[in-house]
């Protein structure tokens, strides 16, 4: 067994213990969240969940977790999700599963956003790729704008949960805030995988022995 799976499970189980009865809960996407869902279901709490992808929705459904579309709820109490990279200042890169646009909407609607990760996700500084979801309409023009920032690679992956193509922007990230802002300013970019620290409440990093390390943001956003 890959020790990283034990680390993911440890982080996921610790996060599941943070959920309380009555919580409205955003469920992320990916292999770490796949450990969180059964740990949550085992607690048999009364919760209402919103899923960020069909894959998460399918697992949650099988586990009997109550789901609601994210159309009418204005806010959530908690969101739990994995990450591809976690920097010391809590900038994240997400989107390995292509659901980062939905994940960012859910994280930003949540009172608390808890990131669960194995130790290999901790990096000294963020590096490429940055996943970018692009609207199909005008895709060539949007890609030209992205290419002004850095090399762009077509991602060998299914489209995003909303049916849009995915690309990888292969750039160094010396200034993630400036890069995020530049990407946000391109009209055809639906969403990118850079998550700012202001979104993050806590990072839980699992260890293979089942213990966890917690990193709380010192100046929580809300
Ligand atoms: C999904 O789109 C991603 O943002 C995931 O949260 C991220 O890629 C981490 O995935 P794993 O938990 O599978 O490593």
For the structure shown, list the relevant keywords.
29% helix, single chain, 2 domains, Rossmann fold, binds arabinose-5-phosphate, Alpha-Beta Plaits, 222 residues
Bound compounds, please? arabinose-5-phosphate
Helix content: 25-40%
Radius of gyration: 17 Å
Largest sheet geometry: 6 strands, mixed
Number of strands: 13
Q: What is the fold-level CATH name, i.e. the topology of the largest domain?
A: Rossmann fold
Tell me what the CATH architecture of the largest domain is.
Answer: 3-Layer(aba) Sandwich
Low-confidence stretches: none
Q: With helices defined by DSSP (H or I, 4 residues minimum), what is the helix count?
A: 6
Main sheet: strand order: 2-1-3-6-12-13
| Whole-number tally of structural domains | 2
Distance between the termini: 39 Å
* Beta-strand share of residues: 15-25%
Order of helices and strands: HEHEHEEEHEEHEEHEEEE
The average pLDDT is: 95
What is the global morphology?
globular
Structural class: alpha/beta
CATH level 1 name of the largest domain: Alpha Beta
Describe the secondary-structure layout.
Blueprint: H1 3-16, E1 24-27, H2 33-42, E2 48-51, H3 54-63, E3 76-81, E4 85-86, E5 92-93, H4 100-109, E6 110-117, E7 130-134, H5 139-149, E8 152-154, E9 166-169, H6 176-184, E10 189-192, E11 194-195, E12 202-206, E13 212-216
Parallel strand pairs: 1-2, 1-3, 3-6, 6-12
Antiparallel strand pairs: 4-5, 5-11, 7-9, 7-10, 8-9, 12-13
Helix pairs in contact: 1-2, 2-3
Bound molecules: arabinose-5-phosphate.
